[in-house]
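Quick log. Single chain, no ligands specified.
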Amino acid sequence: MNLIADFLLAAGAFATALYCFILARRLKRFTTLETGMGGAIAVLSAQVDDMTKALEKARSTANSSSSSLEDQVRRAEAASARLELMLASLHDLPPETEGQTEADAEDRRLRFVRRRPERSPLRAAE
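-> predicted structure:
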């Protein structure tokens, strides 16, 4: 009986050793950096680093653009307020043609008249 138990124990140890050998080979292929999953993980890790850097750069650019845009909006609102004030002050001015009719205003307009120089009588005869 001891002999059968020793034989089964040796067979179990041999099967366990073979199983561990196969797992070791699979794990070695899995973690190789050039062809296996290790390579894919290394590539993905590098891409994540690149994307993180690009994201930080985009975030800083967006922040600077946002602050620049806020400054321009502030300046535009100030200019708009000044224009509204100027427009409101124009309503307080008296009209230019107060007490004048439209016909009087047209008569006061400058007119330019062109006259031809007179021809001398000698030239007319020629």
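The mean pLDDT is 82.
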